[in-house]
Structure to design on (704 residues):
């Protein structure tokens, strides 16, 4: 399985706007993003007018677009806050999506060179993943790397990679308790590696900086788990963590891969972790239920597409987690609704 | 589970001497190794007199010691070539063992500082491992790192780490076919990371540069799989790969961890990969059987110590792999014999 050459036109950059003025964000990213089509989705809760920079090939979606496509005001809650980016995933018609939070800026690598997150995510997605055996020298498909002694030759072709999870310099993606406990804590370690997260290993996918193959797993990138006290800071949310476990289970079931590591973005400070902590973050409690659930979840052979996997997962969520906390029953409903939406809205021509 | 402070006297450095003149090797490592007790085991096939540098606290073992302890000349074959280091593991009475091949020299980190492999292995072994959920920022116990958002709090205490697998700069640990295909290929990427290899994920452990907790898993670091055409080059062997899978299965069964990554050693060229390839390396074929076997191996609850795990594994090897190739039946016998040796020789006072 060799690296595939892909066109710029096969990529959408999706940005969820939780702040109203995106001009400086877009100017910062212009050297990287200007070659690609952008989809910007304004958080439907955001009252101020959205400001975007000129000179981009961009579609902007707002609450009125969401209402029109989703068709019911109760469903628009799915797309509030950081979850607005999922509406962009729904509207995209491209094979690959790169999505980054609007409080991120460009990071530099160890040599001081500006990191092109799009080309790194695409490289991760278009070279094989190796989920069935661990390669100690990390991604064997990176330039200069290879499979180490003892790696079975029958596994060296690898499998398709569906999801690429990037990382963060400066403010890492910690939860509110961790950030509140170490308010001055910053991440400056640039780890020059990409690796395939092994099959059947669960992981906390962060939505801050990801790339994925929409054709392979798009339906599994879904907004479902919404905390009652969820606000407009990443550390108050777990929607992406839930979504990531759904994708990982789908990938494991379908025999495809997830990579983690490069590329890095620089993450700016925003909000006050101690204030967030006062909300008694439900995420701490819920993850104790969520992780064992996904670790033990096995899908049936009848589920052969991402859509079918999600529907089957939603039923298991309702049955096994529903009685634990009403937030899970709502997540299960949201998953079923998402697949309906994906089938209807996802098959229409693009809304411009 | 906090980091434990350990004494220099709890560590043995074990060197298998496959070359007769160790003086330059020992001089090179003097800044790191001189504080510790060394165990040097001379390859019993080596005819020349062994030369070691002065000024070390060292025990040297040769064929006559092996014959005396093992008691039967047919068993000494277990310790020939690179496998001579296992005799050192047997003779050690320390809690931690650090073992490095005699063709390795000191590597430098990204800042140009000399890497202290002992302190890095010990740090890996004395801080918890996290095999039950993947942390995207790698080892959360490293300075400057932490658990990312979504990591269950109940899993943040981690578990004991039993094995630390280091890596290689310059000549990486590839097999003969890979090295022969890319004779000029060298590894210069210093990846500044340590990670826990997830539970139930199999990996190719290299014996070139490792540290382990002898009290926890010593009996599982064993010489067993010996290829018919095995020579005196790492790329011709798989003994350490087999041993590593045994340790990984034991760790998974006992709920303890294995880490991989730092520290690096610099590996020098030795031998001619194309010449080695002419031997038709059996390792390629055997790994196709070995990996699925260990991936599917589950031990019984009755096995609660590393010794018991190995005995149970040996029976499974004999039953399931024995009919495939006689090399596996011999490996199963070697595993049983090793445990007998470990119980007898391992309980005696040190042979000086």
């Amino acid at each position: 399985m060799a690296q595939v050459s892909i066109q710029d036109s096969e990529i959408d950059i999706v940005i969820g706007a939780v702040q109203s003025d995106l001009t400086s964000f877009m100017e910062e990213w212009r050297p990287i993003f200007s070659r690609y089509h952008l989809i910007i989705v304004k958080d439907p809760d955001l009252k101020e007018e959205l400001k975007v920079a000129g000179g981009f090939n961009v579609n902007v979606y707002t609450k009125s677009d969401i209402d029109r496509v989703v068709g019911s005001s109760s469903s628009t809650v799915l797309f509030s806050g950081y979850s607005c980016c999922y509406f962009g995933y729904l509207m995209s018609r491209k094979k690959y999506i790169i999505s980054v939070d609007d409080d991120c800026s460009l990071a530099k690598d160890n040599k001081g060179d500006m990191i092109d997150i799009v080309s790194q995510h695409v490289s991760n997605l278009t070279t094989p993943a190796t989920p069935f055996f661990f390669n100690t020298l990390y991604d064997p498909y990176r330039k200069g790397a290879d499979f180490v002694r003892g790696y079975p030759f029958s596994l060296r072709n690898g499998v398709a990679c569906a999801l690429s999870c990037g990382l963060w310099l400066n403010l890492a993606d910690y939860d509110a308790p961790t950030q509140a406990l170490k308010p001055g804590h910053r991440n400056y370690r640039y780890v020059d590696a990409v690796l395939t997260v092994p099959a059947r290993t669960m992981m906390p996918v962060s939505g801050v900086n990801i790339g994925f193959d929409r054709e392979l797993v798009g339906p599994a990138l879904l907004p479902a788990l919404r905390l009652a006290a969820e606000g407009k800071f990443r550390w108050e949310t777990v929607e992406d963590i839930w979504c990531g476990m759904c994708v990982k289970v789908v990938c494991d079931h379908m025999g495809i891969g997830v990579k983690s590591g490069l590329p890095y973005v620089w993450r700016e400070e925003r909000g006050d972790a101690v204030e967030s902590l006062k909300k008694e973050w439900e995420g701490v409690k819920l993850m104790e239920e969520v992780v064992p659930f996904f670790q033990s979840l096995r899908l049936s052979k009848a589920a052969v597409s991402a859509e079918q996997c999600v529907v089957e997962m939603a039923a298991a969520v309702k049955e096994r987690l529903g009685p634990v906390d009403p937030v899970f029953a709502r997540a299960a409903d949201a998953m079923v609704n998402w697949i309906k939406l994906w089938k209807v809205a996802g098959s229409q021509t693009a809304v411009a």
